[in-house]
Amino acid sequence: MGYPRKLTRRFQAFDNFAISFSIINVLSGIFSSLGFGLNAGGPRLLVFGWIGVSLMVLAVGAAMGEVASAYPTSGALYFAAGKLAKRHKGAWSWYTGWLNFVGQVGGTAATGYAAATFCQALLVLQWPSYVPTMQQTVLITVVIIVSQGVINTCSARIIAVLNRISVWWLLIGLVVIVGALAIIPDDHRSPSFATEFVNTTGFSSGLYGGMLGLLVGTWTFTGFDGSFHMSEETVRATVNAPKGITRAIVYSAIGGLMLILALVYSIGDYGKVAGSSAPPVQILIDGLGIKMAKLLLVIVIGAMLFCGLANLTSNTRQIFAFSRDGAMPGSHLWHSVSLRTRTPVKAAWLAVSCSLVLVIPAWWSHTAFTAIVSINVVGLFLAYAVPIFLRLRLGADFSPGPWNLGRWGIPVGVVAISWIVLSSVLFMLPQASPASIDTFNYAPIALLVVLAVATFWWLATARRRFKGPVSYGCPQEVAAMDVV
């Protein structure tokens, strides 16, 4: 790919899969967004919407996997965009990289904040007199993200081990939670309950309310580009990276469906659950009792912590690669690698710092924090779309890697782009009515701000110095520069 090796190849196929599986993390995603789904479409959209979204996201993952096989680098999406573009390679690469960067930073902040929120819920269950505040939640978030930063300064081998533990934590946790909800509650809903439709979004259109319900699955299925970003640290990356992406989506789809069914059929008083501050926690309390709910909540919080750790690892590699091509302020700092751990330590702390900056507004306003991190999903999926679109535009001129879709590459890519466009529009439309300062969807504003800043920076200076991915020489010259 034209770069000297600085990162060690310590990730096996399972480790590469583990990074994306940990970031998708169905326990974290479903527990964070179930309340929204209960009001936007109800059981019907939670169950059947999940199945539909899983298939669409699998198309996105397969199309991305084909690109990953052809360009297995830490730069991932922005590198592929620069290589696949026929003209204006620098511009395509620039916007893809910044959308990816902002989306990942927002994901780290959002996951850390979600974990802190559920930590607060656990504290309330343990000590009912405890009164959580936004300031306490922010402080817990800071501790979580900084701790994840410390771990990301360790060797790649330690990070790989933790990601393996994350997979088993998540799988065993799913079995325990689903099993408990299936066996312990005295009553369960009838099978037909999965077809019930509920729309309490405030919008009179059931179709619109139901479409919004698709966001539960879309919010959960983010971050699977992590396998792509870990390519330079993965053995046989041209095959194992795309396999990691697609397997993570398939296994998450199956596990997530089991969890949704278990939660939905265990709902007692629907109004009580849907109106609670943490609907999944209320389901656990009503069906299993407080003691069991506290135990299972520990499992969920652990999954969220592993999710944030994997997300930060992926974010760090993207910063490392983007800086290697001179696309970030102080690039010479961020693409340096620790001689002791062979990891981009400075890039890890930049990722931590940027995530903490996004968390700060939550000290005063949860709405302000939501407005900032709302770019997470939109930014990531738009970054996913660019290299897939450019690959489609190349058509037969695209040179695939050993893992490819063959004649299905074009139709799968079209499905992937169509879904990204639809889901991105849904994320930017109003999600509650009547609109107020607390219910307004700030995602379009956040996206416009990011694009405006990127455009101003591009026109002011970047277009003259950034031409896309840099080649350090021919294969022999690059090999002579390897430091590992």
Automatic annotation (TrEMBL):
<feature type="transmembrane region" description="Helical">
    <location>
        <begin position="45"/>
        <end position="64"/>
    </location>
</feature>
<feature type="transmembrane region" description="Helical">
    <location>
        <begin position="248"/>
        <end position="268"/>
    </location>
</feature>
<dbReference type="InterPro" id="IPR004840">
    <property type="entry name" value="Amino_acid_permease_CS"/>
</dbReference>
<keyword id="KW-0472">Membrane</keyword>
<dbReference type="Pfam" id="PF13520">
    <property type="entry name" value="AA_permease_2"/>
</dbReference>
<feature type="transmembrane region" description="Helical">
    <location>
        <begin position="370"/>
        <end position="390"/>
    </location>
</feature>
<protein>
    <submittedName>
        <fullName>Amino acid permease</fullName>
    </submittedName>
</protein>
<feature type="transmembrane region" description="Helical">
    <location>
        <begin position="17"/>
        <end position="38"/>
    </location>
</feature>
<feature type="transmembrane region" description="Helical">
    <location>
        <begin position="410"/>
        <end position="429"/>
    </location>
</feature>
<feature type="transmembrane region" description="Helical">
    <location>
        <begin position="138"/>
        <end position="160"/>
    </location>
</feature>
<feature type="transmembrane region" description="Helical">
    <location>
        <begin position="441"/>
        <end position="460"/>
    </location>
</feature>
<feature type="transmembrane region" description="Helical">
    <location>
        <begin position="288"/>
        <end position="312"/>
    </location>
</feature>
<keyword id="KW-0813">Transport</keyword>
<keyword id="KW-1133">Transmembrane helix</keyword>
<feature type="transmembrane region" description="Helical">
    <location>
        <begin position="167"/>
        <end position="185"/>
    </location>
</feature>
<feature type="transmembrane region" description="Helical">
    <location>
        <begin position="347"/>
        <end position="364"/>
    </location>
</feature>
<dbReference type="InterPro" id="IPR002293">
    <property type="entry name" value="AA/rel_permease1"/>
</dbReference>
<keyword id="KW-0812">Transmembrane</keyword>
<feature type="transmembrane region" description="Helical">
    <location>
        <begin position="205"/>
        <end position="228"/>
    </location>
</feature>
